[in-house]
Amino acid sequence: MVSPSTAYLDLLEKRDDYGQAGVREYRIVDPETQMVEVYSLEGERLVLLEGVRGMGRVRSRLIPGLEVDVAELFRDL
């Protein structure tokens, strides 16, 4: 989850560090905007695969059948 106090680290620095470390998939969940972004590794960089706000589903490229209903994720906020 993105925290206002660490948003820069979460959105940029950590993503870059994880890409260089070989993390193959990375998600950023922002409760304020009710947005989920999915990044996928290309080379040594994590690039945006999809971003869903409000309604819709995000799916994993790595784990077949793994998907998250974004509206359900934020339902109780």
From TrEMBL:
InterPro entries: Nuclease_put_TT1808, Restrct_endonuc-II-like, Uma2. It comes from the Bacteria. It holds the Pfam family Uma2. Gene3D superfamilies: tt1808, chain A. This is Uncharacterized protein conserved in cyanobacteria. Residues 2-71 form the Putative restriction endonuclease domain.
